[in-house]
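For the sake of clarity, the format in which proteins appear in this thesis is described at this point. The record quoted next illustrates the convention:

___
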Amino acid sequence: MKSMTLAGRLLAALFIAGSMLASPAYAAPKVVKEYRSLYRNITVVENPPQRCVRLENKKNPYNSQSCLVLNNPQELLFFYSQAMFAVLSTLDDGLSVLSVGLGGGTMPTALHDYFSKVDVTTVEIDPKMLEAAKDYMFFAEGPRNEVVIQDARFFIRKQGQKGAQYDVVMLDAFNGEYIPEHLTTQEFLQEVKKVLKPGGLLLSNTFSYKDFYHSESVTYESVFPDFCMLRSAGARTIVAYNGKACDAAKLRKDVAGNLDKLKTYIPFPGFLPETISSEKNWDPTARLFTDQFSPANLYNTH
């Protein structure tokens, strides 16, 4: 059993390494389009078979916000999107999903391909990102695939005031270097909880680096006490439910039972169940992120 696990990890590592070597981040890409934005300038680059959307980032100019395979656009290339999708695949059809951060729109596209009846509302602050996703990442808006151009904190607060609730909330806001500070706080997570249905699922794409990890963990724990996570290198996907604990053993079993269905979207999904944990391995005395204290941009996240 241990040798199979090791083999699975090696296979996943080889796949990821191969993807990286084929990626525009590790070869000279062709710049397809540049968008001037009020937030971060956006560049679409291409190095077949991949096309990526990048945000202007002086620290890491080759960091991609979203990528796809041109001849297989439903394939999910990043660990966080694979982790989120694996968890989502364990749910029943007919979901209402609120997604924060559009990127290239690969996740909503994959969800509509996997589920027959899913309503996705994506909140994106930058209209240029939507333009890039529609122009170059095969993203299409529709009656069940809505994009709202607005600050996510403002939108979620207003939805909470209206009494709107969703089966799933996905947090994937990223400005090129870090998660926007006002989307990391205890008060924000309380607003997110308000728009989740009882038993509803929260998925959050985040980091697992140093001080940020500890403060973020105690902040999530203060609102969603018993959450799970999927971790790989410096990436972490948080899995939490409104009003109930996340059962890591059950989640591992459920994801493992869906591996054949996932292969269309994740070429080698077998490693994912092993990344699921509910271990509380952070410093419980770390300071909470609040609206009065949220220096996420100053914490060492790299």
About this structure: The radius of gyration is 18 Å. The CA atoms of residues 53 and 196 lie 30 Å apart. Residues 1-25 have pLDDT under 50 and may be disordered.
